[in-house]
Design brief:
The chain is built from 1 helix and 5 strands. The chain has a single domain (5-67), classed as SH3 type barrels (Roll). The radius of gyration is 11 Å and the shape is globular. Strands 3-2-1-4-5 form a 5-stranded antiparallel beta sheet, covered by helices on one side. With 71 residues, the protein is an alpha+beta fold. Strand 1 (5-13) and strand 2 form a beta hairpin.
C-alpha cells in the first residue's frame, strides 16, 4: 500500500526542501512541482512533492489521518 502525506515546506534548498508534519521533518525533492515556496503544503510520496495543497485541505486530510490512527 502506498500513502502520500501532506507536509508543510519549512525550508527550500535549490530543488530540495525540508518539510514537516506532526513533528517529523524530512528532506524531499521538488523536481516534480514548480513555484512552491516556504509555507506551502505539499503532498509527499516516495520522497518527492507531487501536489500542492491549500492549507485548509491539508489540515482536513491530516485530521482524517490522525483519526484513522495514521500519524
Amino acid at each position: 500500500m502506498c500513502l502520500a502525506i501532506p507536509m508543510k515546506i519549512v525550508e527550500i534548498k535549490g530543488d530540495r526542501a525540508i518539510v514537516s508534519s506532526s513533528g517529523l521533518r524530512r528532506e524531499i525533492g521538488l523536481q516534480l512541482l514548480s513555484g512552491v515556496k516556504t509555507g506551502d503544503y505539499v503532498v509527499v510520496h516516495a520522497g518527492f512533492a507531487i501536489e500542492r495543497l491549500d492549507e485548509e485541505r491539508a489540515r482536513e486530510t491530516l485530521a482524517i489521518m490522525k483519526e484513522a490512527g495514521i500519524k
